[in-house]
Amino acid sequence: MKNIATCLWFDDRAGEAAELYTSIFKNSKIKHTSYFGEAGKEHHRRPVGSVMAVDFELDGRGFTALNGGPLFKFTEAISLQVMCESQEEVDYYWEKLGQGGDPKAQNCGWLKDKFGLSWQIIPTAFTEIMNGPDFERSQRALGAVMEMEKFDIAAILKAAAGK
């Protein structure tokens, strides 16, 4: 669906976040940046000419990064999932998105980036096992990933096989 996009509320680092995210993901771009003006200054209290919002795409999916002020913070109640075909992809996204984030927030494929946004770095092999017909196999894989920070595809497959 092209008519649904995600809006991410930042205090004042929306531009920096959009630049980072578009530098990490292939087929991504910043589409438009809008700026605060005099209109509404009594409410937004931002310097005229500072970044208000950035519309961008990550691999073709639409996002808006909004500088809304310190009122709201990201929580683990929402996260962005990155589906990975290989261990190299898992390692790449884990390293790039986790850089500068909270190391204590790295668990079971989840991490927080330096802006506090939660990401799940998930190998497609794991989702295939979890969505497969063999309940015991999926439970063995699930047990393995519950002990991991960053997902290890070889270890997940080994656990799923009962080895």
Account of the protein in words:
The chain has two domains: 6-67, Signal recognition particle alu RNA binding heterodimer, srp9/1; 79-160, 2,3-Dihydroxybiphenyl 1,2-Dioxygenase, domain 1 (Roll), CATH 3.10.180. It is built from six helices and seven strands; from the N terminus they run E-H-E-H-E-E-E-H-E-E-H-H-H. It has helices at 14-24, 41-44, 87-98, 124-130, 135-145, 153-160; strands spanning 6-10, 29-35, 51-58, 61-67, 79-84, 110-112, 118-123. A four-stranded mixed beta sheet has the order 1-4-3-2, with helices on one face. The chain is elongated.
Biggest sheet overview: 4 strands, mixed
Total strands: the figure is 7
Q: What level of helicity do the residues show?
A: 25-40%
Number of helices: 6
What's the arrangement of strands in the largest beta sheet? 1-4-3-2
CATH architecture of the largest domain: Roll
Question: Can you give keywords for this protein?
Answer:
163 residues, alpha/beta, Signal recognition particle alu RNA binding heterodimer, srp9/1, 2,3-Dihydroxybiphenyl 1,2-Dioxygenase, domain 1, 2 domains, four-stranded mixed beta sheet
Question: How would you summarize the topology of this molecule?
Answer:
Layout: E1 6-10, H1 14-24, E2 29-35, H2 41-44, E3 51-58, E4 61-67, E5 79-84, H3 87-98, E6 110-112, E7 118-123, H4 124-130, H5 135-145, H6 153-160
Parallel strand pairs: 1-4, 5-7
Antiparallel strand pairs: 2-3, 3-4, 6-7
